[in-house]
Write a structure and sequence with these properties.
Kinase-like_dom_sf, binds adenosine-5'-triphosphate, Transferase(Phosphotransferase), domain 1, 6-stranded antiparallel beta sheet, transferase, alpha+beta, single chain, kinase, binds magnesium ion, 10 helices, protein kinase activity
Length: 325
């Protein structure tokens, strides 16, 4: 639990915090992050990289660990925005080493995810409600939101390099407008988002790969395995959708990003897990080309996912009827 930035039971303190956030937001419009800015950070040494999949339910780690100067301070320069603007909670940038500290033969790009408190939801809608909102998990302090995301990367560490991006630590940075932000340093994944991959299936005849059902199924299977393992470890994604899945086309893996992992405390975790499975199932089933085949595969191998997406058809025995016809 972080040190709260305001006293939730004191409306004046909540009010002052919101005023400060609004001021910082205004300042951020005038001096946003731009390409060429540099950030120093310290990628912690990685102890488990020599161990391949110590846990039996892990997917095999397939992407090599990017070459970073682990255990040393290094400086990275923002080179290309992936997501910027005031409509977003996070600013996402590709960054490259300032002076070639990373080995030249490896792709040295990183993703820096800047989580800026003033861009997050403020507790100001009903200042009198702050205590209640915090108690039931409706509102989380910025530092706690960040810790929820970090917890997912740590709990699923052996999936990094397969269905999770490599995570190179949580860092702090001062934004150009003077605000302190949290920064997640992550592996850069060049692959398309699952949304783009699905769109290409419909429109781009050159993108044949996922017209093959087995390849498409491999993506779905990798996502389902990851989400179910996460639930076994009390980690919940809470925002599973096409934009939060990147496709590692070389390995037919769905790389799940943007782990919110912030279910409200008042919610039954079984219900949250059900929601994640429903969202995962729908994300893959909503594809004209593969819907029917995937439905059958889910029925056979992942009845729990099938039953969230097609609850009525479970009762009706959909596949049995279908296979008889
Ligand atoms: N590791 C990565 N490699 C490549 N692209 C990435 C990576 N992380 C994020 N992106 C790109 O940036 C977009 C936004 O990232 P992300 O989903 O983490 O942010 P967000 O949705 O704004 O997060 P939040 O909901 O926490 O504010 C993704 O859809 C993806 O296109
Ligand atoms: Mg996202």
């Amino acid at each position: 639990m972080s040190i709260p930035p305001f006293v939730a039971s004191d409306p004046q303190s909540v009010w002052d915090y919101c005023e400060e956030m609004i001021c910082l937001q205004g300042a951020s419009f005038n001096r946003p992050l731009v390409a060429g800015m540099s950030f120093a950070f310290y990628p912690p040494s990685r102890s488990s990289d020599g161990m391949q999949c110590v846990r039996s339910d892990a997917l095999r780690r397939v992407r090599p660990v990017p070459h970073l100067p682990f255990g040393e301070t290094c400086e990275y320069v923002l080179s290309r925005p992936l997501q910027v603007g005031n409509d977003y909670h996070s600013q996402i940038w590709v960054a490259t080493p300032r002076d070639g500290q990373a080995l030249a033969d490896a792709d040295p790009a990183l993703v820096l995810k800047f989580i800026v408190p003033s861009a997050l939801r403020h507790p100001n809608e009903h200042p009198g409600m702050a205590v209640f909102d915090i108690k039931n998990g409706q509102y989380r302090y910025p530092a706690d939101l960040v810790q929820c995301q970090v917890a997912a990367y740590l709990a699923l560490e052996e999936f990094q390099g397969s269905t999770m991006a490599y995570f190179f630590g949580l860092h702090q940075a001062t934004m150009p407008w003077g605000e302190e932000a949290s920064v997640l340093a992550l592996e850069y994944l060049p692959g398309p988002t699952f949304r783009a991959a699905k769109a290409a299936l419909r429109s781009n005849p050159l993108t044949l790969k996922y017209r093959n059902f087995e390849s498409y199924l491999a993506l779905a299977e990798s996502a389902i395995t990851t989400v179910k393992t996460a639930h076994n470890r009390h980690i919940y994604h809470c925002d599973l959708r096409e934009e939060n899945i990147l496709v590692d086309e070389d390995n037919d893996l769905a790389v799940i990003i943007d782990w919110h992992n912030n279910p409200r405390t008042i919610d039954d975790h079984e219900l949250i897990a059900y929601g994640d499975l429903y969202d995962t199932g729908c994300t893959f089933v909503r594809c004209d080309m593969h819907r029917e085949q995937l439905k059958k595969s889910l029925w056979t191998a992942h009845l729990d996912v099938f039953s969230t997406v097609y609850p009525d058809e479970v009762e009706d025995g959909w596949v049995e009827e279908d296979s008889e016809s």
